[in-house]
Amino acid sequence: MRSSNPVFSRRGFSRDNGGYAGFNAQQPAGGPAAGTDPYAQNPYATNPYATNPYAPQQDAQTGLPQAPARPGAMTIDDVVTRTAITLGTVFVTAALAWLLLPVDPANLGKSYGIGIGAALVAFVLAMVQAFKRKASPALILGYAAFEGVFLGVISSAVSTYVTAGAVPQAVLGTMAVFAGVLIAYKMRWIRVTRRFYGFVMAAAIGFVLLMAVNALFALFGGGDGLGFRSGGLGIMFGVIGIILGACFLALDFKQVEDGITYGAPREESWLAAFGLTMTLVWIYLEFLRLISILQGDD
User: Could you tell me the pTM of the whole model?
Assistant: First the structure.
């Protein structure tokens, strides 16, 4: 099962197999047997790397890996390292943008212009990577660098004109969501099934479309458009945005778990880092907007 949106469909390692990892509609012979797969609660689970040369040997009866993956397969250390590099790039460029692009009245227009331009470049790089069949570290790190510039400018603006405590609160909120979803996923309180995936995709597409319509109304009609970015509606949609981000984190964790379980090639860890970074940026921005509404004058 795949979304037609390339950014959404990046979540899962089975693009070469024609489906989302763990969500193919048919289970091939030799796949995990019901009751033996650690993800047996998902009847659609399959091995997205049945022909992968790095995959570990599988038990003939259960279809589960029974030996350590060969050298060259992705490990949790690879994912952690690549994610740290990607997030570190975001942080460094955000800090530089905060220091070098002040949002005081004398430089406001210039800083906003550079920030918006960086956001557009980051979006283009993300889309290019989403359409590529293989991970490109240069594209992913380029996305992280330009996204960091945008975050630095917008964070500085909120800190200057709304409340000085908004940025650390948004960071702590993002970290809390990440930790909470990770614990819930590891405890199997969250189960990523086909139904869960479909619900999250539908909700995310609807959310993005509503925000796009609101932006168009604001652009041509002035004000806040349909009111989705301020007041009570803004608070409600901010909370919904954070919940959606938490759901995407669960999909990211499933992506990583499937990749390690089935022996994904090591370079796929860059895709995991890309997905986690995009999700964390989403959650941070939603927290920042929600705090701005709650503590601002609007």
Answer: 0.77
